[in-house]
Amino acid sequence: EFCDCLALDPVADTGVKMIYTVTVFIIWFAGCSSAAQDVHQTPPDQVMYEQNSTSLYCSHSLPNHDVILWYKQSEDNQLHLLGYLNMQFKYPEEALKNKIDLDGHGSNKGTLTIKTLQLNDSAVYFCAVRYTVLQTP
To answer: I need a surface site. Which of 8, 18, 48, 95 has the fewest CB within 10 A?
Structure first.
């Protein structure tokens, strides 16, 4: 899998509750390939108000990679799967079906929309793609 990520951090010294995003570009390898530069996540940073929604975008140009996965990194650095797109089929985690929306196609681009933002949505978000192996019976 190859991924890109986006960090969401709260803004501290303002009277307004906001969510601030900072770009953290990390390549996470679960395998060996030089194709990670072909996975991109945008926007690089955001400032958002609580209760608003935000969208993160992931695109790639890797052949035979038909699954886009979205992860949230917790404060203890654990990655938690939010959901994934397998081709055009959307698979959000059951507990997050009312919190997130997935859209797009796993073969090239996908969107993660986080609804009703809260301060606990501040985190590092990862977009990853997975190679698809087709088997014949």
So the answer is: 95
